[in-house]
């Protein structure tokens, strides 16, 4: 794995987070980071007063532009930890960190890393358009992300939109904000009906499957095990809380108390789950916790009765198994003796191999033409 980044006349050590859990071919920066850093440092006309960085994945921008004292905004708890980790590794002061639900501070220049999520991009452009003072925007991303649809979104919220030439398969988008445009109000959070449970599910802009009920999550939600009184349950990688909501629905119908922890690395996901519980299971809200974290990091060993999980198989734009593997490995540590994990996965994913290695075996709880629900029981070795 390449961990030494040479940019202009500087060299930095950069790691993905957590260290050591990724494919060795993956690195913590790409040509989109390089292109915007080179442009910013070579262009004296760009104001760096109150620099604002949006969507710095692993801290490359926060490290390379650290001398400009930037504020960094991200929806990812893991990205925040990567930024802190890499600033420490390079003996730099950590920047001010904000999550994507917080109001943007005023800035003369906004650096925006493009994402595939068009709804989230529109939300962020809407945030920029609400700034009181004029500013310039420089967006950076792979050429595949600089599409006609993306440029149309920029023109909807900002002025004087232009692009750079491509370099190493990345491009820049330049734009200006000056408060002269009439822009629409944000539509987020959006609401989707879940008629089978008589629920309305809300989602913020960066939540997976926000425009429809996720079919994998629905399959697990509709095939939950029978819950028991006072269980401590985790909706792991909760998204908008679909699976945890279904657990609360079952508990309410059977008049039993359960404790549900909604965990996700996305601040928007965790807040979406909180909104959904507060609005539709208000009497059970005190039995719920909502935490932005890295998988099960921070949970007490042997403290959980049941984990319900629909693991992601991508991180930013990279297809990867490491998040699922971290979830399974930590579940083995955090489940009580006899505790169980239920995992829903696309049939083409080879999670059965990993679950067998980690838990010593598995059972197929349910299966259809697209998804499998695996059930594993934690059997701890006697001390």
What this model shows, in words?
It is globular and about 65 Å long. By secondary structure, it is α/β, with parallel strands linked by helices. Helix 4 packs parallel to helix 5, helix 6 packs parallel to helix 7 (242-254) and helix 9 packs parallel to helix 10. Strand 8 and strand 9 (170-177) form a beta hairpin. It has two domains: 4-177, Rossmann fold (3-Layer(aba) Sandwich), CATH 3.40.50; 190-377, Rossmann fold, CATH 3.40.50.150. The mean pLDDT is 94. It has helices at residues 31-42, 60-64, 77-89, 118-129, 148-157, 215-221, 242-254, 267-280, 322-334, 351-359, and strands spanning 4-7, 10-13, 52-54, 71-74, 96-99, 109-113, 135-142, 159-163, 170-177, 190-194, 199-203, 232-236, 259-264, 288-292, 304-309, 314-315, 318-319, 335-346, 363-367, 371-377. Residues 4-178 form the RlmG N-terminal domain. Keywords: Cytoplasm, Methyltransferase, rRNA processing, S-adenosyl-L-methionine, Transferase. GO terms for molecular function: nucleic acid binding; rRNA (guanine-N2-)-methyltransferase activity. Residues 199-375 form the Methyltransferase small domain.
What key attributes describe this structure?
S-adenosyl-L-methionine; alpha/beta; 7-stranded mixed beta sheet; globular; 383 residues; Rossmann fold; 28% helix; RLMG; nucleic acid binding; 10 helices
Strand adjacency order, main sheet: 5-4-3-6-7-9-8
Q: Can you tell me the CATH architecture of the largest domain?
A: 3-Layer(aba) Sandwich
- Please summarize the sheet with the most strands: 7 strands, mixed
Q: What is the 3D form?
A: globular
GO molecular function: nucleic acid binding; rRNA (guanine-N2-)-methyltransferase activity
Domain Methyltransferase small: 199-375
Domain RlmG N-terminal: 4-178
Pfam family, one: RLMG_N
């Amino acid at each position: 794995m390449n961990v030494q980044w040479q940019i202009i006349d500087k060299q930095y050590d950069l790691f993905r987070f957590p260290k050591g859990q990724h494919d060795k071919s993956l690195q913590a920066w790409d040509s989109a980071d390089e292109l915007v850093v080179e442009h910013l440092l070579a262009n004296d006309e760009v104001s760096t007063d109150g620099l604002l960085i949006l969507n710095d994945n692993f801290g490359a921008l926060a490290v390379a532009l650290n001398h400009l004292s930037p504020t960094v905004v991200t929806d990812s708890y893991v990205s925040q930890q990567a930024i802190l980790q890499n600033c420490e590794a390079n003996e730099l002061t950590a920047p001010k960190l904000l999550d994507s639900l917080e109001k943007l501070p005023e800035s003369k220049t906004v650096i925006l890393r493009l994402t595939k999520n068009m709804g989230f991009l529109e939300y962020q452009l809407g945030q920029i358009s609400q700034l009181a003072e004029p500013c310039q925007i420089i967006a950076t991303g792979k050429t595949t992300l600089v599409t006609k649809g993306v440029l149309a979104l920029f023109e909807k919220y900002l002025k004087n939109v232009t692009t750079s030439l491509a370099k190493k398969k990345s491009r820049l988008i330049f734009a200006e904000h000056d408060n002269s445009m009439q822009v629409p109000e944000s539509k987020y959070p959006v609401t989707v009906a879940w008629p089978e449970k008589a629920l309305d599910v809300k989602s913020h802009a960066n939540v997976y499957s926000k425009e429809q009920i996720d079919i994998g999550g629905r399959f697990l939600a509709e095939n939950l095990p029978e819950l028991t009184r006072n269980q401590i349950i985790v909706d792991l990688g909760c998204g908008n809380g679909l699976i945890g909501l279904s657990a609360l629905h079952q508990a309410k119908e059977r008049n039993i108390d359960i404790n549900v922890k909604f965990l996700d690395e996305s601040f928007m996901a965790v807040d979406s789950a909180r909104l959904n519980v507060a609005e539709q299971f208000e009497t059970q809200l005190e039995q719920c916790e909502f935490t932005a974290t890295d998988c099960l990091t921070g949970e007490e060993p042997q403290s959980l009765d049941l984990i319900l999980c629909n693991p992601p198989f991508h991180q930013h734009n990279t297809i990867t198994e490491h998040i699922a593997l971290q979830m399974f490995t930590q579940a083995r540590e955090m489940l009580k003796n006899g505790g169980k994990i239920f995992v829903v996965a696309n049939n083409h994913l080879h999670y059965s191999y990993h679950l067998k290695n980690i838990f010593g075996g598995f059972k197929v709880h349910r299966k259809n033409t697209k998804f499998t629900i695996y059930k594993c029981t934690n059997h701890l070795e006697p001390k």
